[in-house]
Design brief:
Layout lengths: L1 H6 L2 H4 E6 L11 H13 L7 H13 L3 E7 L14 E11 L5 E12 L8 H15 L4 E5 L12 E12 L13 E5 L8 H12 L10 H5 L14 E6 L8 E10 L3 E11 L2 H11 L7 E7 L5 H4 L6 E14 L2 H5 L8 E8 L7 E8 L2 E7 L11 E4 H7 L6 H6 L3 E2 L2 H11 L12
Parallel strand pairs: 4-5, 10-11, 13-16
Antiparallel strand pairs: 1-2, 2-3, 3-4, 5-12, 6-11, 6-12, 7-8, 8-9, 9-10, 13-14, 14-15, 16-17
The structure holds coenzyme A.
Coenzyme A (COA) binds next to strand 4 and helix 5.
C-alpha cells in the first residue's frame, strides 16, 4: 500500500479543477453539483439532503459568487462514490470583514473543506489550499479567512486565530435586577417578521460598528429567521423579540431563541442569534431573556470576550463560561495592503519582519500611523539579513494580531513575536480596538 502510494504521483491519481456552481434549472441541480454537495455532507457527517434542499444550497452558492475547487480520482472504482463525487472539496467566496469604524475589507473566505477518508494524507488539502491562495492573491485579495472545524489544520498554511468565542450560561435566579436601568422597549415578535428587512438592517448596523464582524452567507438568513429549519421546513420552535429605543423607532436589536429541556440542567433558553446596534439594545435584550419564566438559565453560545453583561448582573457569579475556542482565522496575503486598510488607535512607527512559508507576505514592512491611519513602506533586505529594531513574526501570528483581539505584547511575551518589547507594546496600542470585537457569523 505504502509503495503504491509512493509510486503514484498526485497528478496521476487526481484531477483538480475549479467549478462555478450552476444555478438549478427548474429546481433541478446538475450531476456535478449533486456530487459536490454529497461529498461535503459526507465529510462533515451531515445527513443526505433532499433534492429541494440541494437546490437551495446550490442557488445560494451561485448567488454568492462562490467558487469550488474539486479534486476527482482519475480512475475511480466504478461502484464507488468517487465515480460521481469529488474526493476533495474546497469552497471560496468573497466575505467582508469589518474594521469597526464603518469601513471593511474583502476577504477570500474558505468554506466546505473536505477530503474523503480513503484519500487522507496524500496532500489533497495542501494542493487545494496552495492553489486557492494563489488564485486569491492573483484576484487581488489581501486577506483570506475561515472558521475551522479543527484547531490544528490551518496554521501551517499561514492562518492565525484572530477572534475567539465563548459559550456562556447565565443562571436566572441570581442575575436580575441588572445594576443599570435598561432603556427602550422589548416586544415579542414572530421570527419571520425579521425577514422583511428588519433583521438585516440591524445586522448591518452591528457589522458597521463591530470590529471582526463578517457578513453572513445568504443561506444563514432563512435559518436565523426561522423560515428554514434543518429539515427545510419552518422552524416551529424558534421565538423572537426586538428592541426599540423608542416606541416609534425602528428596531435596533433582536434576539431569536428557543426553549431547551435538558435532563441534567433543567429547562433553558438557548439563544440562536443576538444582534445589537448598541449596548443599550444588548442589555435590554438580555434583561428580557433573563425575565422568561419556567427556565433556570439562558445559554448564549456566541458571547463576546469579555462580555459586558457580567458587569451589570446582580450576582456576577450567575455568569458561567462553558466553553471557549477559536472562531475567525485570518491569513494575510498582502501585508502592506491589509495594514494600510485598517484604522489604528495610536500613532507611531513599527517595523515588521514577516516570514511566510508560502511566500505571499514575506518581507519587511515599516508601518507608520498618523492620525489613526497607517501607511506602509516595504524595506529592502538582502538574503538572510535581519532588520535591526524590527519585530519578527510569522504570517499566521500577523493574522492573529490583526484585529487587536489577540494582544501583540502578549504574543511577544510568549515568544511568537520577537524584537524589542517596547515595539510590541506600541504595536499592541496601535491595534487596540475601540470596543470589544465580536464575531457572530459562521461560514
Ligand atoms: C482536514 C482534512 C481536510 C485534511 O486533508 P488531507 O488531504 O488529509 O491533508 P493533506 O494530506 O494535504 O495534509 C496537509 C497537512 O495538514 C496536516 N493535517 C491534515 N489533516 C490534519 C488534521 N486533521 N489535524 C492536524 N493536521 C492535519 C498533514 O499532516 C499535512 O501536514 P504537512 O503538510 O505539514 O506535512 C481532512 O482530514 C478532512 O476532510 N477532514 C474532515 C473535514 C474537516 O475537518 N474539514 C475542515 C473544515 S474547516
Amino acid at each position: 500500500m505504502t509503495e503504491q502510494r509512493a509510486a503514484e504521483t498526485f497528478d496521476e491519481r487526481y484531477a483538480m479543477r475549479w467549478v462555478a456552481p450552476a444555478a438549478p434549472v427548474d429546481g433541478v441541480v446538475d450531476d456535478e453539483m449533486n456530487g459536490i454537495v454529497d461529498a461535503m455532507n459526507l465529510g462533515f457527517h451531515v445527513s443526505r439532503q433532499t433534492p429541494e434542499s440541494v437546490a437551495f444550497t446550490v442557488s445560494n452558492w451561485a448567488a454568492s459568487d462562490l467558487e469550488l475547487l474539486c479534486v476527482y480520482r482519475r480512475h475511480p472504482q466504478p461502484d464507488s462514490m468517487d465515480a460521481a463525487a469529488p474526493i476533495g472539496t474546497f469552497g471560496a467566496l468573497p466575505k467582508r470583514l469589518s474594521w469597526g469604524d464603518g469601513s471593511d475589507i474583502d476577504t477570500f473566505a474558505v468554506i466546505g473543506v473536505t477530503v474523503r477518508a480513503t484519500e487522507r494524507r496524500r496532500g489533497v488539502l495542501r494542493a487545494m489550499m496552495t492553489n486557492a491562495l494563489h488564485r486569491a492573491a492573483e484576484n487581488g485579495y489581501a486577506l483570506a479567512s475561515l472558521t475551522a472545524s479543527e484547531g490544528t489544520i490551518y496554521r501551517r498554511f499561514g492562518f492565525g486565530p484572530a477572534l475567539r468565542e465563548r459559550s456562556v450560561t447565565v443562571t436566572r435566579d441570581r442575575a436580575l435586577p441588572l445594576l443599570v436601568e435598561t432603556s427602550g422597549e422589548v416586544v415579542v415578535v414572530e421570527p419571520s417578521s425579521l425577514a422583511d428587512g428588519v433583521g438585516r438592517a440591524v445586522f448591518d448596523r452591528f457589522h458597521a460598528r463591530t470590529l471582526g464582524s463578517m457578513v453572513r452567507n445568504l443561506s444563514t438568513w432563512p435559518e436565523v429567521f426561522g423560515l428554514r429549519g434543518d429539515d427545510g421546513k419552518p422552524d416551529a420552535g424558534l421565538r423572537a423579540a426586538v428592541h426599540r429605543p423608542r416606541a416609534d423607532a425602528e428596531p435596533d436589536g433582536y434576539v431569536t431563541y428557543r426553549f431547551v429541556d435538558t435532563d441534567d440542567h433543567g429547562s433553558r433558553i438557548k439563544v440562536e442569534d443576538l444582534v445589537y446596534a448598541d449596548e443599550q439594545a444588548y442589555l435590554a435584550l438580555w434583561d428580557f431573556l433573563l425575565s422568561i419564566d419556567l427556565v433556570t438559565a439562558v445559554r448564549y453560545p456566541f458571547a463576546r470576550i469579555p462580555d459586558p453583561i457580567t458587569h451589570v448582573l446582580t450576582d456576577n457569579r450567575a455568569f458561567d463560561i462553558d466553553h471557549e475556542e477559536d472562531h475567525v482565522w485570518l491569513r494575510v496575503l498582502d501585508a502592506a495592503s491589509v495594514l494600510s486598510s485598517r484604522p489604528y488607535a495610536a500613532d507611531g512607527t513599527v517595523v515588521l519582519d514577516v516570514a511566510d512559508a508560502l511566500g505571499f507576505a514575506t518581507g519587511v514592512f515599516e508601518l507608520t500611523v498618523q492620525g489613526g491611519r497607517g501607511t506602509v513602506s516595504r524595506l529592502g533586505r538582502s538574503d538572510g539579513e535581519r532588520m535591526p529594531a524590527a519585530l519578527s513574526l510569522d504570517v499566521a501570528t500577523l493574522g492573529s494580531v490583526l484585529l487587536g483581539a489577540v494582544d501583540a505584547a502578549e504574543l511577544h511575551d510568549v515568544g511568537l513575536i520577537t524584537g524589542p518589547r517596547a515595539d510590541a507594546e506600541l504595536l499592541s496600542a496601535m491595534l487596540r480596538p475601540a470596543r470589544t470585537p465580536h464575531g457572530i457569523t459562521y461560514f
